[in-house]
Amino acid sequence: MTVNTSRAANAGLTHRSLSNTIAEALTWQALRRRWSQRWLDRTREQLLLWKWHG
Questions:
Q1: Which domain of life is it from (predicted)?
Q2: How confident is the model at residue 1, as a pLDDT?
């Protein structure tokens, strides 16, 4: 998949590395939503998937 980002670049926006984007998103999530930065453990993930899919 490709996306033309020329309009964004012309408006002054810049690209960030994926690792930087992830780190910033996790920091924002923890600060603004008071969520943990830890990922779900395997047991919790499977329980949620089971509840979601029935």
A1: Bacteria
A2: 86
Cβ(33)–Cβ(26) below 8 Å = no
d(CA 42, CA 50): 12
d(CA 28, CA 5): 24
Buried b (16+ CB within 10 A) or exposed e, 4-42: eeeeeeeeeeeeeeeeeeeeeeeeeeeeeeeeeeeeeee
Entry pTM: 0.42
